[in-house]
């Protein structure tokens, strides 16, 4: 483990920004920039007074919605100290405090005793996953840019507590929430959480990443060239969009992005979403579509080649066309509401900023 994790974290963020600076001018056209600005304005107005976000504007607090909304603001270059947008810094501080408050009260799982819509769709412990992903980004920034503080220690404690619980809930085969439709999505988010924590110097115990990678590779279906559960096709049909985006995100992050099957699945996903069976439905009514768009964008930006050049203009323009006049995106099925879809849409659209280390 690097002896200066915070320095590494911030250096990585700066390198990502520098590497993408030239391309970002072309990738984010005026329509996309306007779309991002409207979306961020909507998010800021939708926040609850206690710092949380719910599925809808100013609604019942939800940990995952709070985390993804916070990530969308961080992806825009905002932080807890100063921001380009009025209220953004205060919004991030309040969001962090809300999640920390929930973590303080929880024995292990931040959503202990709750059953929410997002848990039903992505897995019972998924709030832990999203909370850790958000808090690690904040923790790295506090240590690197702001020099650390007593608050940073509390963040580290909360992250350690939640990552220990995530690691302990891993299935023997390396997955999370096995034999559910949300398994591959939950596995992806758990992996992202643990990887993000490790990247800031938080020790990860009990988890077996090699088993996770094997589990994911076993989901490949040679017939469809998608990660839809292998020959059995447990995640077939429209579900294969979510499962494939999740698997590709992990494989690319683990250095397997250049393998033959991984590349074939990338091509199949792009084809299905832009011209194939998913074309009409993609980014229309289901909240998970927007998460898949963010995961694929984060997967392909690392390639920075022909697949990225084909994918991003497609998803960028489709998101801009489907945005509401108030700046939000609306979904009516599965993870319904405006907050989750809006935050995930912004994570996808702002990928060319290359500001979040979690994109690696």
Instruction: Identify the overall geometry.
Output: globular
CATH architecture: Alpha/alpha barrel
The largest sheet has its strands arranged as 1-2
Structural class: mainly alpha
Order of helices and strands: HHEEHHHHHHHEEHHHHH
**Quantity of strands, as a count:** 4
Low-confidence stretches: 1-25
Number of domains: 1
Mean pLDDT: 88
The first-level CATH class is given as Mainly Alpha
- Number of H- or I-type helical stretches: 14
User: How big a fraction of the residues is strand?
Assistant: under 5%
CATH topology: Glycosyltransferase
Helix content: 55-70%
Q: Rg to the nearest angstrom?
A: 19 Å
Termini, distance in Å?
17 Å
Task: Throw out a few tags for this protein.
globular, two-stranded antiparallel sheet, 14 helices, single chain, disordered N terminus, 2% strand, 4 strands, mainly alpha, 360 residues, Glycosyltransferase
Characterization of the model:
It is a single chain. By secondary structure, the protein is mainly α. It has one domain (5-206, 213-359): Glycosyltransferase, CATH 1.50.10. The protein has 14 helices and 4 strands. β3 and β4 (226-227) form a beta hairpin. The chain is globular. The protein starts with a helix and ends in an 11-residue tail after the last helix.
